[in-house]
Amino acid sequence: MESKESAGLGVIGRAVEELTASGGLGLCALHGEEEGARLPSAQALAEIVELARAAVFPGFYGRSTVRPSTMRYQMGVSVERLHGLLCEQVAAGLCFGGGVARERRGEVAEQVAGQVVERLPELRRVLATDVEAAYRGDPAATGWGEIIACYPAIRALTCYRLAHELHVLGVPLIPRMMTEMAHSETGIDIHPAATIGHHFTIDHGTGVVIGATCVIGNNVKLYQGVTLGAISFPLDEAGNPIKGIPRHPIVEDDVVIYANATVLGRITIGRGCVVGANVWVTKSMKPGTKKYNRERVNPMDMEFSHGMGI
Fold it and tell me: Does pLDDT of 249 surpass 80?
């Protein structure tokens, strides 16, 4: 009779055999077929995000003690570390696509890392406008420092703007991994392919969704629970959604969208529009227009006086 130990080993052996068979790996085989190829590291990407936040907002992220006399040295160490990690992780991400031959991935990764580092000052300038928009739009805010240190929108936007740079440079997988980290951290889901202008803010933030083909202008404010999503997906002959087509809203400058509003499809919300809370929008809005839910009055709640209702 087979012992419990040998029976257990048999079960383990069969499971291992199936799990390591190329046919059983399914989609994972797309990466695993390259001998020695490394997956991007979630831990390393988290460090990249934190280093970028520290470079953009020194003292608020990373080392809390920042002295003007040592700022240049500390910034140099952090940015050098950021550059090195980006080289490693971008090379790993290029295993998933991008059409770069294996022997050139290190070279391309170094070029990408250099371009991202060069863009850090511009990222800071744009993020400063986001901080300003959050401060000016929130009467509860006591100062810019509070916005940077406490507001989840700034955490999410720092991550998004870094990931968007990598997306524009053609890096696969890693930008989405970064924004999903921010999604888990803040509850704000911004696809790295979305385009967002300056002075953008999200009040409170939880539950906001911004789809991949969204185009958002300048001076736009969203509240918690807003969805900028797709209403339908054209299908190919096999019945699968066609990828890469514009399917999310265009939100022009100076728009405010209040809590839990849902804006769907490739429609345009014109400049200066206001979308009220809990509203569904599936058709374009002309510039300067407003859309609210009309309040329904229950006759039982009406007050009758001076002959009203008689």
Answer: yes
